[in-house]
Design a protein that fits this description.
The complex is a heterodimer of chains A (113) and B (113). In chain A, 0% of the residues lie in helices and 51% in strands. Chain A has 113 residues and is mainly β. Helices cover 0% and strands 53% of the residues of chain B. Chain B is built from no helices and 12 strands. In chain B, a hairpin with a 5-residue loop joins strand 10 and strand 11. Classes of the chains: A mainly beta (113), B mainly beta (113). At the A-B interface, strand 5, strand 9 and strand 10 of A face strand 6 and strand 11 of B.
Chain lengths: 113, 113
Amino acid sequence: EAAVTQSPRNKVAVTGGKVTLSCNQTNNHNNMYWYRQDTGHGLRLIHYSYGAGSTEKGDIPDGYKASRPSQENFSLILELATPSQTSVYFCASGAGGDYAEQFFGPGTRLTVL
Amino acid sequence: AQKVTQTQTSISVVEKTTVTMDCVYETRDSSYFLFWYKQTASGEIVFLIRQDSYKKENATVGHYSLNFQKPKSSIGLIITATQIEDSAVYFCAIPSNYNVLYFGSGTKLTVEP
């Protein structure tokens, strides 16, 4: 079974609307991450968490909030969605230590009209 | 801050040949790991192989190997006996605090029959 799942897989939102992207992991990893992928930019970090109750800003946090209510769940929240936030969003989990690989979810394609 | 650069946007090879993808990185850390990930056409992102900067031996996993040249801050990915299913986008990455990954922009590999 997939260890990192994301919902929804596709989302169309209107400008100014609120969007919540959800991520669940069954790896029992402390660390979780939200990235966005745009053509020519690879993956860029939005927010990350090192445990339940913690959220930290990544490189491009503006316009995004994050929530980590439990070890398993990590949400990305767009309070006022804008067309520039149209992208593919990936959630990942990883164990502690810089030797540890990350496990990625299948991605969520978000279109903001 | 960590930085990764992949200058090859795309590469096309014939099946069963060997291909090398380049990656250069920047870090102030004296000890670090380097990672390669693969993104398939379906969007799935999976971990391929890692290199410990303290090890002189190049990492090898299956038909994937690395060419680690620490003085040049270079970590190339070598795929031998390429197969059609190796067609994908390959990302080089280096971790920072809490294993946050910094990715290159990726190299798209096309393996043709």
